[in-house]
Amino acid sequence: MTHPDELLAEYVEGALPARERAQVEAHLEGCPTCRAEVADAAEARSALRALPEMDEPPGVTMAVLREARERKAAPRWGTPLRVAAAVVLIAGLAGGGIYVYGQLEEGGDAASTADGADAEPEAGPEADAPADVDEQAEGERAAAASVSYPLVRRTGIDHDPESVVSLAADLRDEAGEALDAGLPADAFAFYEAFPVDSFPRVAREALVCAGQGLEPERSVVPFVIEDAAWDGEPAWVVSYLQGPEPTTPYDRVQILVVHREECRVLHFAQQRL
Amino acid sequence: MADDRELVRAHLRGDRGAFSTLVERHQRRVYNIAYRMLGRPEDAADATQDVFLACLRKLSGYRGDAAFTTWLHRVTVNVCHDALRRRTREQPSREEEGPEGSSRDVADAAVATVDVERALALVPEEFRAPLVLHELQDLPYDQIAEILGAPVGTVKSRIHRGRVALARALHGEPQPPPGPSNVQETM
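YS: structure for the whole thing
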């Protein structure tokens, strides 16, 4: 016999609509097991509901409140994990020679990227291009006023190396359009137009987790941040635009995938603009 | 008074007082769930700490799409499950003892409370969590389903089985083998 456990829970509480109550009662007529269970369940319910609410011990959360205060006081870069992620990444960037421009380099894990740290330094074709920073930044501030960077998108896409390849191509195109529409063309101008303080809170969270992109003195600017997933794990997919110098135009888009909670580097890729 | 979500946002913006307010607002509820799940005040106190530490670490992952209390309850239940698993690993025999302080030379009402507490500790864990949330925290079935990530029908069924298990423990009867008497879990 199939016993209506689900209905019995509400039957004991007197919460069943008339029709289902009649159904249960018809079952109980012929089922001594369920009759006994209903009596037991009713007894258990009143015994439980008579249990007193307990007072929490004084100071039970004191340690965690102290930790919360200390966390706020400490620089957010302070955790070894984030520093490690940043070091690995910076090492990877310094070894730019391992990337083949014009096609996407799938970085795989960060360790393999860091292996190339002793490769010869790169010089992008635009490295010596002159840029009139002040004038450029001024114009772009006005033009870009309606759009604020970095852009944050909650896509929930479960990424893999292949989807990052196509994301990189899309972002290259999007960066081209954004530049046409007034996105400041180099890091210096970008941070003039969009100081770190102006970044949305969620963007700052992601960038802290990714370990870079909050440093106006560097040549990296955050472009689009996806709140997404990697292999089923929650992840930030952070894309950066970068030029050879802070004052030279971007020549590549980089994508860094980090675990949203643990901030581990999960994947790295880049695409030349 | 700021609601929970506003406090979470304020905390993430760096407002130092926001997290304390959240903790003060919810610590009694968390402690009581942990106390009923774990049966021992010192374990409940540890679990309460662990819950809010986990919150501190994970708040940036709170998406705001579930009520904060649902999220907090989920963290609490998970912390309690972990504590129970640790306890079973470390002291396999103590689980059977139930809560401490079961001295008989106290007032009758207190004896009854201790009996129920001891019996609750014998209810299988998968039934205990929904039972505690429903009977002691007055949470509705659908919210418990969201907290436990289980279908509502499963939650109802587990609550019924939990009540029956509790009554048997109160009567000093042996617990039936784990699992419900029939398979209706996914209805």
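YS: worth flagging: The helical segments of chain B are 4-13, 16-38, 41-58, 68-90, 108-122, 125-136, 141-148, 152-170.
IM: good catch. Also Residues 104-187 of chain B form a domain with the Arc Repressor Mutant, subunit A fold (CATH 1.10.10.10).
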